[in-house]
């Protein structure tokens, strides 16, 4: 009888270990290039992932300078997630320096990119990297990230796919909210000024006219002639709303506001989330905060 009890206990212990082992396993180490992507990975992967974000809240991925710690983080990762479309010009060198040989998910891969002015010294026709500003594109990001997690950690494929599906559902609801908010405003009034051209996808998707003194990047200042032309246009078209971005130097926008008579409508979140506890600590909170501010600045109650 005692021998049977010991065998039974051993069998039960083995089954218990098999059932509970996943709870004890270490989370999948993932590196995301900047805070928006870091949030998307976390929303989809939950407790199954441990996310390191290279360019953190209020950071500027355009001018980021990686450190040796960043290379070590990538070297220890099992998945790296980047935006693509030229946003992280420093990433290929960083991955090479880290010795990383794993998978790299380019979140924007399924997006139809906007084209326009490129970064200084690259001529015209470059790609606009800010595709996440259209919520429908963020859903494509989520699909790519979910499948990347599945390939990196196939044992939890069902959980990652369920996480991606649930998050995409939230994004579809958010897209509807944004469209409804701007439908209430006459299209001729939907004109805004931002520090640099980070909201082109947003403007295209939701029917806004966007002007910006800088191009897609933040690496250089616009010419005095370009700023003067923008000020003339603001006066001529009586544009109400001019915004500072959370990762940009506010002085240029403040100068344009002074000289044009426009009012600074507040601080938009473009290339980075806010710190935890702020108004835009997640991607969904970021979009809602931006829409609320723009709508209010255009003189319409949200």
Q: What is the topology?
A:
Layout: H1 2-24, E1 28-34, H2 35-45, E2 49-55, H3 68-75, E3 79-82, H4 91-98, E4 103-106, E5 115-117, E6 124-127, H5 135-152, H6 157-183, E7 191-193, H7 200-206, E8 209-211, H8 224-237, E9 241-245, H9 251-260, E10 263-268, H10 283-297
Helix pairs in contact: 2-5, 3-4, 5-6, 6-10, 8-9
Q: What is the 3D shape? A: globular
**Structural class category:** alpha/beta
Assess the beta-strand content as a share of residues: 15-25%
**Helical residues, percent:** 40-55%
Describe the structure.
The chain is α/β, with parallel strands linked by helices. It is 47% helix and 15% strand. The longest helix is centred in the middle third of the chain and has 27 residues, at 157-183. The radius of gyration is 23 Å and the shape is globular.
Describe what is shown at a glance:
This protein is of the alpha/beta class. It has ten helices and ten strands.
What would the keywords be for this entry?
302 residues; disordered N terminus; four-stranded parallel β-sheet; single chain; alpha/beta
